[in-house]
Design brief:
Oligomer: single chain
Helix content: 40-55%
Structural class: alpha+beta
Shape: globular
Number of helices: 4
Number of strands: 6
Strand content: 15-25%
Order of helices and strands: EEHHEEEHEH
């Protein structure tokens, strides 16, 4: 998973861009977590604590839901979860190409935590 963070010097806004297949992570960072270090840190800490227990965990955001299960994290647009779609069903749809690539992304917990640390460092340094 490759990513790039940018700050618009004209309006002060931040943007995260991710490689194909992980585009939704950029919008999740930009739209849901934003640039507030305490919010980013709280998400990171929640994921770390759940990662130790190996339980399924969900965080419903305004536009995106973060689901952690067995050390794998899924970020999915809430519109795909309409009607209580099961996570396994979403993964099957992903394998078959029945979804929009820009609405769901999967990654390992360690990769996501590293990316959150990088995002937090980026917004703090600007």
């Amino acid at each position: 998973m490759e990513y790039e963070f940018k700050k618009n010097t004209l309006d002060g806004s931040y943007n995260a861009s991710f490689s194909m297949g992980h585009e939704v992570l950029g919008r999740w960072l930009t739209d849901e977590l934003g640039t507030q270090a305490p919010v980013i840190t709280a998400m990171s800490e929640a994921l770390q604590s759940v990662g130790v227990t190996e339980q399924e965990w969900r965080h419903l955001g305004k536009h995106y839901t973060v689901i952690m299960q067995s050390g794998e994290v899924t970020v999915v647009a809430n519109m795909l979860l309409q009607g209580e779609t099961e996570l396994d069903e979403l993964h099957q749809q992903q394998d078959l190409g029945f979804y929009d690539d820009e609405q769901i992304a999967l990654c390992g917990l360690e990769d996501l935590l590293r990316m959150l640390d990088d995002w937090c460092a980026f917004v703090r340094s600007r």
